[in-house]
Amino acid sequence: MRTLLFGFFTIFCSVSIADTPIDGLQLYLNPETGEVSSKNAAGHIPLGTYISAQALIDQQSAMTGQLRQLQARLERLEAREDGTGNATAVVSEVVKPERGSVATVQEQTPADAVAVNARYEGRKLRWRSVDGRYSVGLQNRAQMRYSTPFDDSPRDLADLDDTASSYALNRIRTILSGKVIDPRLAFHIEHDWNESVIRDFFLTLELGDSTSLWVGRGKALYNMEFWISSGRQQFVERTIAHDLFTANRQQGAQLFGRLFEGSPADLSYTLGIFNGRGGTDNNNDDDFLYTSRLQWNALGGPIARAHSDLAFSRTPRVNIAIAALTNRSDCTRFVSGANSCRSLPGFTPSDQAQDGQFDVEQAMAELRVRWNGFSLEGELNRKRVVDRILDLEDPRRRTTLEGGFIQAGLLPHGLFPAVPPQLEFGLRYASVNQGDYRGSDDAEEISGVANWYIDGHENKLSLEFSRIDLEDPMLQREGSENRLRLQWDVRF
C-alpha cells in the first residue's frame, strides 16, 4: 500500500508543479567576453532560468501540504484492518485530473481482493501479491519427438521387431508453482495433458535453515536420474535401466535438508514414507514404502537438478550419494502415469497380484561431477524382489536385478572458445541384468547425443543415436537394433 501511495504522490507532484507558474531569472552568456547577464543579444548563449529562493520555498510548502494529505489517507487505510491483523486489500484507480487540479483516488474494496503484480520472466508468467505473501508461476512445456524404428526401451527380443517410425508429443505439461500465505510455504502442481492426470500436487514447508517438509504427490527423492526433470536431461530420454529401479512418483511425505554446509562433511539428506503404490494409486494395506538418501557434497556444494555443465563451472564439483528403499505391496515397479503400480517383466501383473504379495528391497550408489563444461553421471542399482506366495524352495521366490549407467557430456566451448557455447556432445552406457529365473532378457544400451541449447534446458534440440543389445539367458538367444531419435523440448 505504501508503494501504491508513493506512486500517487509522484503523480500529484508532477501535476501540481507542471501547472504552477515559476518566477525566475533567465541568464545568458556572452561567448566573447565571458560575461553572464540577464540581457539577451545576438550570439549570446541561454543558460536557463534560475528560480528565486522564495519560489522554491513556495513549492516546498505546496508539496508538504500534499504529503500531509497522503499521510492522512494512509492512516485511514491502515485502520481498516480485519480481526486477524491482515489489511483489507484495496483496488484503486488513478483518475486523470482536470488542469489545475490535484489527482484523486477512487477506492473499491471487494471482499478478499488481493493486489498483485504480473510479469513474464524466466519463461514463466508470474503473479506476485504486493504484500509478498502470495506468488504464482505458470509455465507450459512441450516435448516433440521423432523416433525410428521404435521409441520405448525394448524389454525382450520381440520388441526389436517393431519397425514403426513415429512423431509424438511425448510430454505436454502445464505447471503451477509458487508461495502461499507464508514465504516458507511453497506449492507445485503439474498436469499431464497426454493422460489427463495430475502428476504432481505437493506442498513444501521450510522448517528451518537445514530442513524442509514435503507432503503430497510427486517424485520420491531416491535417485537423481528420475528426480531431474525429463526436460533437463542430457539425452532424449532416461536410460534403459531407469524404470526397473526408480521409485518414481509416490503419495506421502519426505523430510530433506542439508547439514554442515560449507565444511568438508557437507551433507544433503532425505527420509520418506509413502503409500508404496505409485503416484496415483492409494494404499490397500497397512504397509508403506520407506526411502532414505544421503549425499556427500564433496566439492562445490550440491549440484543443480539438471544434467550438463551449462554454467562452465570454474572449479570441480563432486557429489557422491547412496540410497535405499523397502516396500511391501502388489507392485514390483512404478510408472508416472495413471495406474502407476506396475509389474516387472515375468512377474504376476499388479492387477492380479495379492495385496502385499511382494517384498522389495533396493540399494543405489551415485556419482555426479561438473567442471568447465564437462559433466559425469553414474549410478549402480541392486534390487531384490521376494514373491511371498511362492514356496521357499521355488527358485523364482527370490529375484535379484542389477543395473546402472554411466554417461559423460562435454561442451567444447570450455576448451575451445571458438566453438559455440550452445553445442554439447554426450556418450552413455547402460546395462540391466533382470535375473535368471523369470524369463526376462538382459539389456545393454550404448548411446551418443548432440545437443543445441537455444536457451539452456528451457529450449533445446537433441539428436540421439543408440545401439541396443538384448539377450535371453534361458533360450541363449541374442538380438540387436539401432535407434534414432530427434527431439525439441521447450518451455514457455
Question: Could you explain how this protein is built, in words?
Answer:
By secondary structure, this protein is mainly β. The chain has two domains: 107 residues, no CATH class; 303 residues, Beta Barrel (Porin), CATH 2.40.160. Helices cover 10% and strands 48% of the residues. The chain is built from four helices and 25 strands. The strands form four sheets. Strands 8-9-10-11-12-13-14-15-16-19-20-21-22-23-24-25 form a 16-stranded antiparallel β-barrel. The protein has a three-stranded antiparallel β-sheet with strand order 2-1-3. The chain is elongated.
Largest sheet, strands/sense/barrel: 16 strands, antiparallel, barrel
**Percent strand:** over 45%
> What is the name of the CATH class of the largest domain?
Mainly Beta
Radius of gyration: 32 Å
**Strand/helix succession:** HEEEHEEEEEEEEEHHEEEEEEEEEEEEE
**Count of individual helical segments:** 4
Strand arrangement across the biggest beta sheet: 8-9-10-11-12-13-14-15-16-19-20-21-22-23-24-25
- CATH topology call of the largest domain: Porin
- Tell me the structural class: mainly beta
Query: What overall geometry do the principal axes of the alpha carbons give?
Result: elongated
Compile the SSE list and pairings.
Elements lengths: L1 H17 L5 E6 L6 E2 L7 E7 L1 H26 L12 E5 L8 E5 L7 E6 L2 E6 L5 E14 L17 E15 L1 E11 L4 E10 L4 E9 L4 H4 L14 H4 L3 E11 L7 E8 L14 E11 L17 E13 L3 E2 L6 E2 L15 E14 L2 E14 L10 E13 L12 E11 L8 E12 L5 E14 L4 E15 L1
Antiparallel strand pairs: 1-2, 1-3, 4-5, 6-7, 7-8, 8-9, 8-25, 9-10, 10-11, 11-12, 12-13, 13-14, 14-15, 15-16, 16-19, 17-18, 19-20, 20-21, 21-22, 22-23, 23-24, 24-25
Organism: Chromatocurvus halotolerans
Protein name: Phosphate-selective porin OprO/OprP
Keywords: Coiled coil
